[in-house]
Amino acid sequence: MNADLESFVPLTFSRRGVQRLATTNAVAHDTTFLVGLARAFYWKSLLDTGAMKSGSEIAKNEGLHHSCVNELMRLTLLAPDIIKQLMAGTQPRRMTLMWFQRNRLPVDWQAQRTIIDGFK
Known about the structure:
The chain has a domain at 29-104. Helix content is 51%, strand content 5%. The protein is built from 6 helices and 2 strands; from the N terminus they run E-E-H-H-H-H-H-H. It has helices at residues 31-49, 55-62, 66-73, 80-88, 97-102, 109-119; strands spanning 11-13, 19-21. A two-stranded antiparallel ribbon has the order 1-2. Helix 2 (55-62) packs across helix 3 (66-73). The longest helix has 19 residues, at 31-49. The protein is elongated, with a radius of gyration of 17 Å. The relative contact order is 0.13.
């Protein structure tokens, strides 16, 4: 089983050597984001079923800092159409897991859509 993996990341270079993603409509799955989203929903189900009592307990079980668990669990508040974009790989390229970890996510779905539209 010797399969090569290949991924295309469209970049542009400025005169100062700064890299940024080029605007493209190509489908590109952000696997880091998808894994984070999956973990968030898994942890939410642990809390909902009573298998775990708190985010801190999940963090202790996973060997993570409690803030990591809480930051990722905020992703479960994403509007369904935004999650659908992520699953299809059609989300704006600047919409990354890191952005959501560093910025507050409004609970209101319309406010979320306004933020996502700002990425385009």
